Amino acid sequence: MTRTREPCRSEPDAGAYFDDRAERYDRAYDARGVDGYALRSRMAGALQLLGSGPGEILDAGMGPGRLLAELAQRGWAVSGVDASAEMVAAARSKLPEAASRLVQGKIESLPFPDASFDAVVATGVLEYSQLERALRELARVLRPGGRAVVSYPNPGAYYVVWRTRVWYRFVRAAKRVARRPAQTFPGGAPPVRPDRFPEVLARALLEQERVRYTAFLVVPSPLDELLPRPTEWLGRQLEGSGSRLGRRASGQVVYSARKSGPPEPPPHI
To answer: Which DSSP letter does residue 191 get?
Structure first.
């Protein structure tokens, strides 16, 4: 989903947090409105940048396996990892033939050997991680010359600014008055603007190639929830409008990068 993080005092573990939300998260891919549109838009951007197989690919933070299923249909040999046991179970139910390659683990310490994959993808997960450590792990398991496709929230988007600086503050104040607990989110990485993200990638020896702006959300909360279909329609109309508008309207940016170094030579036969 489109994460616009609300500051909180107590931050739950990401695995446990998504254990409680795995079924809802999976259903959201098919739902009309803000969350469903944002998930589908981000996944479409990642698929466009990854292209078709063959090759071995890892989805780090695979969630319920929606992206993995699409990649398998496009000829990739898929593996996946997620911190949530419930997400792993959901992914295995969609891809029983790959169940042994779908495992529980954290993106900061991937349970795979060096240079295991031709491509890696991480969408909707880096914002909950130790960002630079996670990127180094993605680069570690990627073969030289391989492609990494990752997403990260756009902190300068109008929707994100409104939601975090205005709407969430109003919701917190209302909950305090009503003596109701505030919603909490897992801890994670700091905001990074799209124009600074290449520097973060470079420190992990990943060279940025292309960028896709996704999840164009321009209807502010709470109207986005009250008007789900118009919210999605407007977002879809704005997709493909280019980087100039994307920097202000896109809630999620998807980046494609290559691992530094020449490709591995083919094996001798």
So the answer is: P
CA 108, chain centre distance (Å): 15
Strand 102-104 relative to strand 117-122, pairing: unpaired
Tokens of 122: 């991480």
| 14-259: CATH superfamily | Vaccinia Virus protein VP39 (3.40.50.150)
**Paired tokens of 186:** 């897992």
CA distances from 77 to 52, 67, 70, 266 (A): 11, 13, 11, 19
- 58: three-class secondary structure by DSSP: strand
What tokens does 235 get?
Answer: 């977002």
Q: Any residues with CB less than 8 A from the CB of 234 and at least 6 apart, and which?
A: 216, 218, 219
Tokens at 142, concatenated: 């990627």
Q: Profile the chain (269 residues) by mean pLDDT over runs of 10 residues.
A: 45 82 94 94 97 97 98 98 98 98 97 98 96 98 98 93 82 78 73 96 97 93 92 88 76 95 49
Length of the chain as a residue count? 269
Beta bridge partners of 212: 254
Please count the CA atoms within 13 angstroms of the CA of 218 that sit on its side-chain side.
14
Where in the chain are the domains?
14-259
Question: With contact defined as beta carbons under 8 Å apart, do 35 and 185 qualify?
Answer: no
Give me the sheet containing 102-104, strands edge to edge: 102-104, 77-82, 56-60, 117-122, 142-153, 250-259, 206-216
Smallest CA-to-CA distance from 259 within 154, 152, 137 is with 137
The C-alpha angle 261, 143, 89, rounded to 5 degrees, equals 150
User: Hey, is 26 helix, strand or coil?
Assistant: helix
Q: Are 105 and 84 in contact (CB under 8 A)?
A: no
CA distances, 127 to each of 31, 58, 216 (Å): 23, 18, 18
